Amino acid sequence: SNFNKYISTMKSAIFTTLIAGAAAFAPAQTGKASTQLAAFENELGVQPPLGFFDPLGLLEDADQERFDRLRYVEVKHGRICQLAFLGQIVTRNGIHLDGNIDLAGNTFDSFPNGIAAIIGPDAISQSAVLQIVFFIGTLELGVMKDSANGAEPGEFPGDFRNGALDFGWDTFDEETKLSKRAIELNNGRAAMMGILGLMVHEKLGEIDMVADLPIIGALQ
Length: 220
Known about the structure:
Helix content is about 50%, strand content about 0%. By secondary structure, the chain is mainly α.
């Protein structure tokens, strides 16, 4: 039935996200593995209540380069999810850009919110989706780069300044920098879970299981 199909889809999505979210943390192991993992026990982001957490063992036998790569991925995904969650809140509160989204005269608010904006009968055109993919690809390959994906090394994984942008970062002391990076990590982790929850509720709405959520109401 459609109900079982959607439930199966949601379980798969949740399982996949949990795997991705576990990437940059690791639990204590025994023997050689515990010695290697101990090197990361004081890394930024290791904090209560989970502490050093990696149930999949992705940091077993890992060196600093491997850790930095996983941290870079975590930071990037966190930033994307923060933007996605903010986008959900803004558009579902009826706030859209003025004007037309295409030459045909369709307005921004004439399209549905959430994933339905790009997938479904009322979605934007395929050419518009390809433009979005091209833009994101350009940012990924040519702009949003650090030492983890080929740019000159920055101060830390996820440092995308590339010698051009600063926004006053160099005026902060080391304690403030660490605090702000920890805040970003936590907000990114929360946003990853938050956007997953919104995606699940959006699909539940398709099988008449509409939930009235705080702030944004029912996802329809």
